[in-house]
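Have a close read of the entry that follows and walk me through the local backbone shapes. See right below:
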Amino acid sequence: MLPSTAQRVPANTCEEVNERIRRQTEANVARYAHADPVAVERRLRELDQEWDVERCVETMAPTISLIGIGLGLTVSKKWFVLPIAVQSFFLQHALQGWWPPIPVLRRLGVRTAQEIDAERNALKALRGDYREVTRESPRAAERALHAAAV
């Protein structure tokens, strides 16, 4: 059975690396627990700019493939094996969550979108974004969506 989208990468990452990323996220949240609102807002903007592992993979795969195609067209047809290999691994990543560079990216601390969102939501909760969101509040769905998006 194929892993869920949210669990593909962590399931194929060494548990030691997953734990280090979890601890770093917890430390990030703890650092801002008593920070002024401006610092929290700045961190939320940083999180909006952070590249997740999927974006890294989605950038690396076509870059390497295009290099292979370019070399195949200009140097030797043997280079066409590179984009074929890359795209084969990319398909494996889409299905299973593994691609050869991912262990390196994860060891470098590149997080999944869910891991980034966990920090973002913890900071928003500290900031108080979710206090007024209850099922009984008027326009509850609208308020919940706004709190999650801010």
